[in-house]
Design goal:
The complex is a heterodimer of chains A (552) and B (334).
Chain A (H helix, E strand, L loop, with lengths): L16 H7 L4 E2 L7 E3 L10 E3 L2 E6 L14 H10 L4 E3 L7 E3 L2 E7 L4 E6 L13 H13 L5 H5 L5 H4 E3 L4 E5 L7 H5 L10 H6 L8 H6 L7 E7 L3 E6 L9 E3 L2 E6 L3 H9 L5 E3 L3 H7 L5 E4 L6 E6 L8 H10 L2 H8 L4 E3 L22 H10 L7 E6 L3 H16 L3 E6 L2 H8 L11 E6 L6 H9 L17 H10 L4 H18 L3 E7 L3 E4 L23
Parallel strand pairs in A: 3-13, 4-14, 19-20
Antiparallel strand pairs in A: 1-2, 2-7, 5-6, 7-8, 8-10, 9-10, 11-12, 12-14, 15-23, 16-23, 17-21, 17-22, 18-22
Chain B lengths: L1 H28 L4 H6 L5 H11 L5 H13 L13 H36 L4 H15 L2 H15 L23 H7 L3 H38 L2 H8 L4 H38 L5 H10 L3 H29 L6
Helix pairs in contact in B: 1-13, 5-6, 5-9, 5-11, 6-9, 7-9, 7-11, 8-9, 9-11, 11-12, 11-13, 12-13
Classes of the chains: A alpha+beta (552), B mainly alpha (334).
Chain lengths: 552, 334
């Protein structure tokens, strides 16, 4: 969810039932909205011997700060959590819609899609030494909701009364009862950042007041993942070492040690990669990626994720008239941004939905740069030559440049764009602040991605009227009654209806009543040593890496 | 002397109070809500209210300030919104790194700057003097962050002689925390390989950090030396047949060091400020980087703590400088 500058994202993928069933040997799965569905675990063959690959070193701009999945927000923290913890179910590889077993070895969906029964894997140990049971699952999910911390929203959409709705049935079975069928619950539970299962004994032992062990979980490794934290020097380095009792086993080639170093300067990160002193990094400039593509010892991986970058319109004053917002969309030079600035490491966004997200309409309306049309639309909206628009922005490769490109384009038709630069923190303070639309700039750039593969989850924070101002990321106080109605319908709609609604919503917020100038989907580029194998990118798990699958 | 020290320390307390008030007001008038930033974009209003209350940010500003001061007296700098732990714990980790880097830079400045300044004065127009002039010009003209990047490019990327950053190699474990200064702690605990590694990692950032101050000190020493060398007592000493080496070191340099000490004291402030940029370039986990992060994320408590600690350090260093005058020049007394 957040800006392209490093905060984290959570995501989900739309549940592709058929795909899952086809992929899982011996599993049976019907629609989650149907009568029942069941998953079973993988059939394992004779394990190969562990082949120690030594140390893998990642250099990154950010630094882990908070390891508690109930509250942590930074991708740099997610990156550690993803390697020290597990969820009940996982996204399969690079899929955004297929779920595979993890701590839950199998599951059944009954009662018309309202009851989820998870059969837990036996013999799973936490890094604390305790054995995982259903009590840990119940407590982990319940505390995320009841502690009321940052990430509680993800589960409260599905579960309002955890004490009643989540319960242990025996030592290795957990049931979740919903008030209505929820096709996205499994995808939410696969969110490796929020729904990680922690050691409830440790949490309870270190709980202070009503914090559900939050203060302790912030800085302690309470997971079941393949790696455990060996040392953590804040703002400098986190060292993970393999957890010998990891339930997934250690057959085959794996790294026994993972070093995540904080290197704030992007030029320094590039140098470390080029000299072979680091194995992977991201968040460099497009110029860096271009140059590094020619280095035979490196591989530049640039898949597309679910992030969409845009410039939000203030639905007020000069831009109240949709024609003015359409004019801005026509005025923008998309090619200059895509090719001149992003050097090809981005593709056009045509609305709030990225290409890989459920609900994306490949045939949706796309603006082509046309200054004459822009001028005519401005005139229709009552904006004449000599008018001034305002824009706030913070340092970011594409969003910075987008402001300058728009400024240059508008100057050609006599409109002045005043740009105010500020730090990301100050900018976020304005975007998420309580100031009404009259006190906001006309244009506010930002980036967003969903928690999971759900067009409702992606759109609500951006364009729902109830997400305006301090209640979400609708910083322009966008309000369109058609959009609000569609969203209310989408929250519980069946897949086919959901997709149609998403198409309609995309059409409104892009063409009829634009909510934003939809810019690009930036490529999620990672630079790796060529000898590094096993990197699997998932479009929903941005800026985090699963080191367990990697090897030389 | 004791009265002087007590008076200066009392004055320092007043300065710190003033700085805490100014920093508090400045950081709180920024049009942003740190709780909203801390809570994240998806936090509900209820969550934000809860966090605001937990952090005490729902109280009136004067009350927040008084509470802050009260906590400060107990050594409690508050909770960092960025690192999610006590600011004092952050300072415990980061401050020694900056002190070590600054001390290393000071050593570099003194070891190189004093001989260079003296030789430039004694041998005007010589190659040494020319080198001193180049250092003076470039040291003042080149910003530390650019110099740092260039140094990395040359000594790490092209030559591969020195590491790009960090305090130790990624595979090395830090020595036990005694002072927090890796060079000292590794020596004390007998980890000589770690000592060598930490020195190796210190070299480039310390030189880059100290380069600007080296220029200032070199020129100051040179100018003072030239001034002193023209004094009557030096001419008298020379006339009495005293060896040149003795005249330069015992008579001229000692007197030239008085203004140089003042300059060096002031340069400590510059070094602390420069550490902000140098630490970022060299991934040096000190309070400079901590301060940068705190500022970017509006981490109030961290911003205030760093400002107060930096002011305290600066005040104490200048007090020490004032006391050093007595040692260097017996004519001075408080």
């Amino acid at each position: 969810m957040i800006s392209s500058c490093g905060t984290r994202q959570r995501l989900t993928r739309a549940l592709s039932i058929v795909g899952v069933a086809g992929l899982l040997a011996g599993s049976t799965m019907l629609s989650p909205l149907g009568v029942s569905a069941q998953h079973s675990g993988w059939v394992t063959s004779h394990p190969a011997a562990f082949v120690d690959q030594g140390t893998v070193t990642m250099v990154t701009d950010g630094s882990a700060a908070d390891l508690d999945p109930a509250s942590e927000e930074l991708a740099s923290s997610d990156n550690i959590d993803r390697n020290i913890g597990n969820t009940l179910v996982d996204l399969k590889g690079s899929s955004v819609g297929q779920v595979v077993p993890s701590l839950a070895q199998s599951w059944t969906i009954t009662n018309g899609g309202k009851r989820y029964i998870f059969n837990l894997r036996h013999g799973v140990y936490f890094h604390t030494g305790h054995l995982m049971t259903s009590a840990d699952v119940v407590y982990s999910l319940t505390r995320t909701i009841k502690a009321g911390l940052t990430n509680s929203y993800l589960l409260t959409r599905f579960i309002s009364n955890p004490a009643k709705q989540i319960r242990a049935v025996g030592k290795y079975r957990v049931e979740i009862d919903l008030s209505r069928p929820q096709q996205f619950l499994l995808l939410a539970l696969a969110d490796s950042y929020v729904c990680m299962i922690l050691d409830s004994k440790a949490l309870k032992a270190h709980a202070k007041g009503n914090d559900y062990g939050h203060a302790y979980a912030t800085s302690h490794d309470l997971g079941t993942g393949p790696y455990r934290i060996q040392s953590w020097q804040h703002n400098q380095q986190v060292t993970l070492v393999r957890f010998p009792r990891y339930w997934g086993g250690w057959s085959g080639p794996h790294f026994s040690k993972v070093v995540v170093q904080t290197v704030p300067e992007s030029s320094s990160r590039r140098e470390l990669l080029e000299r072979g002193q680091a194995d992977l990094t991201f968040d460099l400039t497009p110029q860096d990626y271009r140059a590094m593509q020619h280095n035979s010892r490196l591989q530049v991986s640039s898949p597309y994720g679910t992030e969409v970058d845009y410039i939000q319109f203030d639905d007020y004053g000069k831009l109240k008239n949709p024609a003015a917002r359409q004019a801005l969309s026509y005025a923008f030079d998309y090619n200059a941004l895509l090719n001149g600035v992003m050097k090809g490491f981005a593709r056009r966004a045509t609305g709030p939905y990225p290409h890989v997200l459920l609900g994306y309409n490949p045939h949706g309306f796309t603006y082509q740069t046309n200054l004459s049309k822009a001028k005519a639309l401005f005139a229709r909206a009552g904006i004449k030559a000599g008018a001034t628009l305002t824009m706030d922005e913070y340092p970011s490769t594409d969003l910075d440049a987008a402001g300058l490109i728009l400024q240059a384009q508008l100057s050609q038709i006599g409109i002045k764009l005043q740009i105010k630069q500020m730090t990301e923190a100050t900018y976020n303070g304005i975007l998420y602040g309580t100031e009404g639309p009259s006190g906001r700039p006309d244009l506010m750039p930002f980036g967003w991605w969903p928690d999971f593969n759900d067009p409702y989850d992606m759109a609500v924070p951006l364009v729902a009227s109830w997400s305006a101002g301090a209640n979400g990321a609708n910083g322009g106080y966008y309000k369109d009654s058609r959009v609000d109605s569609l969203l209310k319908q989408m929250e519980t709609a069946r897949r086919s209806v959901l997709v149609n609604d998403a198409h309609e919503l995309q059409n409104i917020v892009t063409q009829k009543d634009p909510a934003a100038l939809w810019l690009v989907e930036p490529a999620q580029t990672t630079v790796l040593q060529r000898k590094l194998k096993g990197y699997v990118f998932n479009p929903l798990e941005l800026q985090t890496y699963n080191f367990y699958t990697m090897h030389h | 002397m004791i009265r002087f020290v007590v008076r200066r320390l009392a004055f320092l307390v007043l300065v710190l109070l003033g700085i805490s008030l100014i920093t508090f007001v400045l950081s709180h008038i920024v049009p942003a809500d740190p709780v909203r930033l801390y809570a994240g974009p998806r936090a509900t209003p209820a969550t934000i209210r809860l966090i605001r209350h937990q952090l005490g940010f729902d109280q009136p500003l004067p009350q927040q300030y008084l509470l802050y001061l009260s906590n400060l007296l107990h050594g409690n700098f508050g909770y960092s919104l960025e690192s999610h732990r006590a600011v004092s714990a952050d300072l415990y980790d980061y401050l020694p790194a900056t002190i070590e880097l600054t001390l290393a830079a000071v050593v570099f400045i003194l070891v190189v700057g004093i001989p260079l300044g003296v030789l430039s004065a004694v041998l005007p127009g010589s190659i040494v003097d020319q080198v001193g002039r180049v250092i003076a010009t470039t040291g003042v003209a080149l910003p530390a962050f650019w110099l740092g990047l260039m140094a990395q490019l040359v000594f790490f990327d092209l030559l591969g002689w020195l590491p790009a950053g960090g305090r130790l190699n990624e595979s090395a474990n830090p020595p036990p925390h005694i002072t927090g200064l890796y060079t000292v702690d590794s020596l004390v605990s007998g980890q000589f390989a770690t000592f060598g590694q930490s020195l190796f990692h210190l070299l480039l950032p310390a030189v880059v950090l100290g380069y600007g101050s080296l220029a200032v000190l070199t020129r100051q020493i040179r100018a003072s030396m030239l001034d002193v060398m023209g004094q009557d007592y030096v001419r008298t000493a020379r006339g009495k047949g005293m060896p040149r080496r003795i005249i330069v070191i015992r008579h001229a340099l000692r007197n030239a060091l008085v203004p140089a000490t003042t300059v060096m004291g002031l340069q400590i402030g510059y070094l602390l400020g420069g550490a902000l940029l140098v630490e970022d370039v060299f991934s040096w986990p000190g309070i400079g980087r901590y301060a940068t992060l705190a500022t970017l994320t509006l981490d109030y408590n961290a911003i205030m703590a760093v400002t107060i600690v930096a002011a305290l350090m600066y005040g104490l260093v200048n007090l020490v400088v004032d006391l050093l005058y007595v040692v260097i020049d017996p004519r001075i007394a408080y």
